[in-house]
Sequence to fold (182 residues):
Amino acid sequence: MYDIMVLYILRHEKRDLDKYDFFSPLNMIGKHYSKIFQYSKFNDIDIEEIYSSPYKRALDTVSIISISKKVPIKIDWALTERIYGKNISNIKWPNISEQEDLHSLYEIDNNYTPTADINYINSYDESLDRYITRVDTFSQFIETQKHKNILIVTHQCVTDRLIKNLTGKDISLNMGECYEIA
Fold:
């Protein structure tokens, strides 16, 4: 155990910019980087817990780390991307069964109780207030985990808010970029 936590906030690897729904995968570069760069970055780090957005691209980014470290992924809908400013009216939010089918492909910690669960979000049309509430609640939860090395994999809007909440700094991560908080 550690006296202080080291928190690694990782924005998912590269995806095609025109694909941003729940099931959008990593592109070829993102798949390569998740296997090579992310694996090598975390190879010598003792990661004790992994939290991830339920989106496919976030899970694909962290899957190899989860398998190699034998640390199951804790899915939390608080880490879900907030899509705004795009034409979301023609994108269907996946039902619970579709989400569970996707998640069954990964090593998931089914004993984890998320700060926001599968029922919290049921549409891409989420209000700013609901988004702020879910990310801020997750930030408060993470602050109670100060004795662990934790990897969080999520999306730009969430990484930005988590970093701001936990450090007071305005930092925006590129796809595949990681920010370390000790």
